[in-house]
């Protein structure tokens, strides 16, 4: 039974790792899309949300894995 228990534990671990990776990739894609959307906003829309074009430029050059919310 010891071998079976180790297999189940390894399976749970690998399933958890895959789930974490999928979440991370999904979050990176979400950040990429949000930064693209932000860059596409007009200056008036940016002013409405309290951002400048310089803020957007700073945000858009950040790498996709740079998550300010650490999700």
Summarize the structure.
By secondary structure, the chain is an all-alpha fold. The protein contains three helices and no strands.
Overall description:
The chain is mostly helical and about 70 residues long. The chain has a domain at about 25-70. The chain is built from three helices and no strands. The longest helix is centred in the first third of the chain and has 39 residues, at about 1-40. About 0% of the residues are buried.
Radius of gyration computed on alpha carbons: 20 Å
Mean of residue pLDDT values? 87
Task: Please give the largest β-sheet.
Answer: none
| Fraction of residues in H or I helices | over 70%
Distance between the termini: 38 Å
- Give the H and E element order: HHH
Tell me the number of strands. Answer: 0
So what's the overall shape? rod-shaped
Pick out the low-confidence regions. Answer: none
Features:
71 residues, mainly alpha, 3 helices, 75% helix
Secondary structure topology:
Layout: H1 2-40, H2 43-48, H3 53-60
Helix pairs in contact: 1-3
């Amino acid at each position: 039974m010891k071998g079976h228990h180790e297999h189940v534990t390894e399976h749970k671990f690998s399933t958890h790792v895959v789930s974490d990776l999928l979440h991370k990739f999904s979050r990176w894609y979400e950040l990429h899309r949000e930064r693209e959307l932000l860059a596409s906003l007009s200056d008036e829309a940016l002013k409405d949300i309290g951002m400048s074009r310089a803020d957007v430029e700073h945000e858009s050059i950040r790498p996709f894995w740079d998550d300010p919310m650490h999700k």
